[in-house]
C-alpha cells in the first residue's frame, strides 16, 4: 500500500517514484492500493487507477465541491466500470472515524499517500502520522510518501511565471509572508488565460508550516514507522519544475515521464549538495516493514 500527498502534482513522475520506493523498501510484489489524503481533485489517485484494473485508490478531503469537480473531471477519465476503482470521500484526516473510511478495499496491497502542509503544528502532525501508521497493512507492510520543500528559495518573497507544456496553460506562483519564527509561509497560484491574462477568479491560496527533514523523520519514528528515507533535488526541485502531465496510462515507460532529478541524499555529488544551499525539494519515504509470519 502507498500513502501519498503532494502539494504540486506531476502524476507520472510521482507514481513512478512511489512504485520504485515500494519495490526497494517493501518487496517485489506489485502495489495495488493507494490512499491520497488532502486529495483535492484526486488527480494522483485517478491516474494511479488508470494504470490497471487491479489498482484501487481512495482519497479524503474536507472540501466537497473540490471532490465533486475531481470526480467529474479526473474520475471520468477512468471510464465506465473502471470508476469503481476510485472512491472520493469527504472527511478530516485527523478524525479517527473519517480516517478509517479510507480503507474500503481490504484485499488491496499496502500503498498510501499524504501531505504534511496542512498539519499546522507538531501535535496535529504526530496525531495524523499515527493514524497513517495504524491504517497501513501490518502484515504486508506499506510506505508513506510525502514531499517537502525548503531552503532560502522557499523562505523569501518571489514571483515565478510557469507554463504547463502538456495543457498549454500558464500560471504564476507568488510566494510571500514567510515568518522565520513560526516557519509559516503563504503562497498563491494565479492561473492565466490562453492569451496570457491572469484569471484571478481561479486563484489558489496556501498557508503552510515549513517542516524540516529531521523534524518529520523524528515524528515518523514516534508514530511507529520502522525506517525513513529521503530523496532530494536541488534548487527547489519540484517547485521549479511543475510542468507534469495531467494524464498517464500507468505503464513503466510513461509513468517515468515527468520525474525530477531526485536522488538519495547520501548519493548527491558536491555540486548537487551546493545547489541544496539555495533551495531543495525532497520526498520523505516512511516504511512500515512487513511483519514475519
UniProtKB/TrEMBL annotation:
**Spans annotated as Disordered:** 228-274
Q: Which InterPro entries match?
A: SAM-dependent_MTases_sf
**Start-end of Low complexity biased regions:** 239-251
Q: What positions belong to coiled-coil segments?
A: none
Compositionally biased residues, Basic and acidic residues = 262-274
Query: What's the superkingdom here?
Result: Eukaryota
The protein depicted here goes by the name Class I SAM-dependent methyltransferase
Record organism? Auxenochlorella protothecoides
Amino acid at each position: 500500500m502507498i500513502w501519498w500527498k503532494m502539494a504540486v502534482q506531476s502524476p507520472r513522475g510521482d507514481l513512478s517514484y512511489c512504485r520504485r520506493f515500494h519495490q526497494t523498501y517493501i518487496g517485489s510484489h506489485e502495489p495495488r492500493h493507494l490512499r491520497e489524503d488532502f486529495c483535492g481533485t484526486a488527480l494522483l489517485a485517478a491516474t494511479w487507477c488508470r494504470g490497471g484494473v487491479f489498482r484501487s485508490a481512495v482519497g479524503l478531503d474536507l472540501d466537497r465541491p473540490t471532490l465533486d469537480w475531481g470526480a467529474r473531471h479526473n474520475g471520468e477519465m477512468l471510464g465506465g466500470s473502471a470508476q469503481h476503482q476510485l472512491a472520493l470521500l469527504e472527511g478530516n484526516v485527523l478524525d479517527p472515524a473519517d480516517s478509517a473510511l479510507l480503507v474500503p478495499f481490504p484485499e488491496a496491497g499496502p500503498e498510501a499517500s499524504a501531505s504534511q502542509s496542512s498539519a499546522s503544528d507538531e501535535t496535529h502532525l504526530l496525531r495524523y502520522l499515527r493514524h497513517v501508521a495504524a491504517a497501513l497493512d501490518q502484515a504486508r507492510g506499506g510506505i508513506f510518501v510525502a514531499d517537502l520543500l525548503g531552503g532560502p528559495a522557499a523562505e523569501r518573497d518571489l514571483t515565478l511565471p510557469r507554463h504547463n507544456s502538456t495543457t498549454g496553460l500558464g500560471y504564476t506562483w507568488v510566494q510571500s509572508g514567510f515568518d522565520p519564527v513560526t516557519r509559516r509561509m503563504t503562497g498563491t497560484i494565479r492561473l492565466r488565460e490562453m492569451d496570457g491574462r491572469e484569471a484571478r477568479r481561479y486563484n489558489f491560496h496556501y498557508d503552510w508550516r515549513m517542516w524540516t527533514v529531521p523534524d518529520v523523520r523524528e515524528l515518523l519514528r514516534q508514530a511507529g514507522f520502522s525506517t525513513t528515507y529521503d530523496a532530494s533535488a536541488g534548487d527547489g526541485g519540484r517547485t521549479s519544475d511543475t510542468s507534469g502531465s495531467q494524464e498517464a496510462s500507468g505503464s513503466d515507460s510513461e509513468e517515468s515521464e515527468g520525474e525530477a532529478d531526485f536522488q538519495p541524499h547520501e548519493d548527491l555529488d558536491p555540486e548537487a549538495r551546493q545547489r541544496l544551499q539555495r533551495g531543495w525539494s525532497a520526498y520523505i519515504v516512511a516504511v512500515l516493514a512487513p511483519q514475519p509470519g
